[in-house]
Amino acid sequence: MKILVLNGGSSSQKSCLYELNNVLPDRPLQPLWEAQIDWTHQQGIAELKVKTAKDDRLEDEFASDSREDAISRMLESLWRGKTQTINDLKEIDIVGHRVVHGGEDYQQSTLISADVKQAIARLSVFAPVHNPVNLEGIEAIEKNLGNVPQVAVFDTAFHAQLPPAAFVYPGPYEWLENGIRRYGFHGISHQYCARRAADILGQDLADLRLISCHLGNGCSLAAIRGGWSVDTTMGFTPLEGLMMGSRSGSIDPGILIHLLKQSDLTAEKLDGILNRNSGLKGISGVSSDLRQIGDAIVQGNQRAQLALDIYIHRLRAGIGAMLASLGGLDALIFTAGVGENSALVRAAACEAFGFIGLKLDGEKNQQSPLDRDIAAVDSAVRILVIHTQEDWEIARECWKLYH
């Protein structure tokens, strides 16, 4: 069966095509076809990059104000031209979509119906940057592929078994009754990494206590017991928790009250400050990209150094909180852009946890390892660097629903 995966971001659109048989493989398969659209470099211009398993490649730029039209253009590269991989779009059996917010109603991957689409739209108030984009992807597939089965794979679903003590905010009880609670995000990535960790360690996932550190432009931790998240750092929105690239993470809400009283700030301006002009970018004044901050530190930039120091401090504090929720730890996982590529961040995070017998092998850490254990031989806790593969996890969810 051929499974098409769509993973939409605020200014990008990724897609890939997998072919699976009747037996679900343990390891990720290479996609037959991969494509990405990027709108970040030029206003109204989409940059399309496509590659196939045979290493045929396509790069194109075109005027685009409509995600639906851009997806149609992307799909054309799947069935014609030098990156042609199939003869007809009807060969696609099922389409899986990453959907960021499933609310309380959708706690597992779900076949998309009119009701599910309405729910995704309704939940856009909780995820205004992502859910509308995910919905556009669903509608683009309806336009291009007709009635092919589509599956919503929710980022919040992996956290569906959080205990009430972890997901209820200590505000008025009416908040909970109105759906204001902690949901958690990055669930598709945390789920994949937990399963891959068990595979690397040769152990049953049900027996493991894991802390998964998804450290990219967005950052979150998950405490995983028995294959499910029992605590996490993101909450009602992806703004809570760790310091991130351009997001503040958790701050004293009294600051917001103070600012609203002292100035002419609107909700929109506050949103811009907290989501797009805080975190590493806000403190350093350099960038939301840790690599550029590292370059600035080498040049003696003290604000860049402060940004990194805060980032590490809050990461350690978050790991400590997850450790307390688990009551012990078998493996610490690093994943996503920073987690997979920054030896410095991994070393700094691990340094604080020698008291639980966690020991990093410095040489292995420097070797840019992926899907490897980089703990010292005598470490009481394993330390894993895992290349997260959300698209593959979405394809797996589609396969399971189809069978």
Automatic annotation (TrEMBL):
Q: Where is this site: Transition state stabilizer?
A: H186, R247
- Please list the GO biological process terms of this entry: acetate metabolic process; acetyl-CoA biosynthetic process
List, alphabetically, the PROSITE patterns matched: ACETATE_KINASE_1 (PS01075), ACETATE_KINASE_2 (PS01076)
Q: Name the cofactor(s).
A: Mg(2+); Mn(2+)
Give the positions the UniProt entry annotates as the active site: D155 (proton donor/acceptor)
**What pathway is it annotated to?**
Metabolic intermediate biosynthesis; acetyl-CoA biosynthesis; acetyl-CoA from acetate: step 1/2
Query: Under the GO molecular function aspect, what terms does this record hold?
Result: acetate kinase activity; ATP binding; magnesium ion binding
Which InterPro entries does this one have? Ac/propionate_kinase (IPR004372), Aliphatic_acid_kin_short-chain (IPR000890), Aliphatic_acid_kinase_CS (IPR023865), ATPase_NBD (IPR043129)
Any matching Pfam family: Acetate_kinase
- GO CC list: cytoplasm
- The record's top EC class is transferase
- Compartments, as annotated in UniProt: Cytoplasm
Where mainly located?
cytoplasm
Per the UniProt record, which EC number(s) apply here?
2.7.2.1
Q: Which UniProt keywords apply?
A: ATP-binding, Cytoplasm, Kinase, Magnesium, Metal-binding, Nucleotide-binding, Transferase
Q: Could you describe the subunit structure of this protein?
A: Homodimer.
Family from the record: Belongs to the acetokinase family.
| Annotated PANTHER family | ACETATE KINASE (PTHR21060), ACETATE KINASE-RELATED (PTHR21060:SF15)
Q: What HAMAP family is this protein classified in? A: Acetate_kinase (MF_00020)
Q: What does this protein do?
A: Catalyzes the formation of acetyl phosphate from acetate and ATP. Can also catalyze the reverse reaction.
Name of the featured protein: Acetate kinase
